Amino acid sequence: MKILLKILGGIIVLLLFCVACGYGYLMFAYPAVPPPTAFEIEATPERLARGKYLNDHVVGCTTCHTRRDWTKFSGPVMEDRLGSGGESFNLGPAGMLYSKNITPAAIGSWSDGDLLRAVTQGVSKDGTAMFPLMPYPHFGAMDQEDVHAVLAYIRSLKAIENTPPAGKLSFPLNLIVRTIPKSNTFGKRPPRADKVAYGQYMTKAALCGDCHTASVSGTPMPGMEFAGSVEGADNWQFVETGYRVRAANITPDANTGIGSWTEMQFIDKFKGFETATNTTLAEYERANNTVMPITAYAGMTRDDLAAIYAYLRTLKPVTNRVEKFPDAK
Ligand code: HEC
Ligand code: HEC
After folding, report:
1. Residue 2 class from Cβ within 10 Å (0-12 exposed, 13-18 middle, 19+ buried)?
2. Contact partners, residue 296, CB within 8 Å, separation at least 6
3. What angle do CA 188, 192, 194 make, to 5 degrees?
């Protein structure tokens, strides 16, 4: 009996030792990204213009980094708080995150190298690993010039003092998150003439797949790319509007996707909201409100939207019927 207890005790000590070593290694070796590079992004007028276009209508830094007004159609951002963070992202049992203040009041002391590393590799200036809800894996694969343009523009935002609440990830995600940031390899923006490849680039930059592809434990479900919400997936439904909203199937399936939409219909779906009036919705209309920032996407050029449409047409049609607004009567 005594010997058995001794062996058991020995095993427990050994196990605790292994856990401590593993924890120590995780803390010491991760996040595994190189130190920030020293360089400056020159804010040329071309960069600022391109950066504003990409931010306002495509990559949406300030769409996530600003509180949105869900009493209005598609939750427009509160302009007087632009970039000051605090929008909440409910990850269910995985935790709760808040976007950070990215105006000069908060990141004014960061070097361009610090900022570039945060946005493309996922490590904050103080060394904290970020959860990829902040879409650094996408931004790290974009054309470096496009990223520089966006960052030049972000630097020009008005300084607003605001300290959003700290986010919280539950165990074990709070440890796993340290292993996600990686050094990145920038891509190349394909020429516009190559409509499908260019459309794919813009679709990724606009993060369409992040909402429209169901994922489990952060990994996209194989075969369900752009097929919309799937019951039980991490991103099964959004609740930000106060009602349940599910992402539509945007594969070319004729019955349950957008296979029957013409290019013109697709473009007009977005362009129709370019001059949205921002009126406050009645309670019954809020059950039909969307989390897709379509009023922001509406400012994309017709050519860019046409390219996105062209890319979406090349996807595998997937049959998946989605009830988009289950609470609407
Ligand atoms: C889908 C929403 C979303 C988009 C789009 C987005 N962010 Fe973020 N961002 C976040 C969230 C959420 C965090 C906090 C992540 C965390 O706590 O792990 C964050 C964190 C950051 C941080 C770290 C700030 C700090 O104090 O640690 C920076 C810098 C940043 N984002 C810049 C940007 C820029 C620039 C863009 C556009 C190129 C952008 N973000 C686009 C959601 C987003
Ligand atoms: C923040 C999450 C989110 C992002 C990002 C997003 N969508 Fe959506 N989308 C939704 C949701 C939710 C719906 C269903 C509600 C609605 O109709 O707006 C939807 C609906 C749609 C529809 C209407 C489909 C139908 O059957 O009526 C189209 C088309 C669409 N999205 C295309 C896109 C494209 C293209 C992009 C990228 C430029 C994009 N979405 C980005 C969440 C998102």
Report:
1. exposed
2. 56, 57, 60, 63, 74, 76, 77
3. 85
pLDDT digits (tens, 9 = 90+) for 79-94: 999 999 999 998 878 8
Q: pLDDT tens for residues 207-236?
A: 999 999 999 877 899 999 999 999 989 889
- On the CB side of 159, how many CA atoms lie within 13 Å of its CA? 7
Sorted by where each begins, the domain ranges of the chain are: 45-179, 195-313
Q: What is the pTM of this model?
A: 0.95
Residue 289 binned pLDDT confidence (cut-offs 50, 70, 90): very high
Cα 93 to chain centroid, rounded = 19
Pocket test for ligand 2, best of 246, 253, 292, 322 (most atoms within 8 A of CB): 292
Atom of ligand 1 nearest to the CA of 131: 18
- 125 vs 120: CA distance, rounded Å: 13
Token pair in block for residue 70 = 């869900």
Pocket-testing residue among 90, 99, 175, ligand 1, by greatest number of atoms within 8 A of Cβ: 99
Can you tell me the distance from the alpha carbon of 153 to that of 157, in angstroms, rounded to the nearest whole number? 7
Q: By the 8 A CB rule, do 165 and 208 touch?
A: no
Q: Starting from the CA of residue 208, give the closest ligand.
A: 2
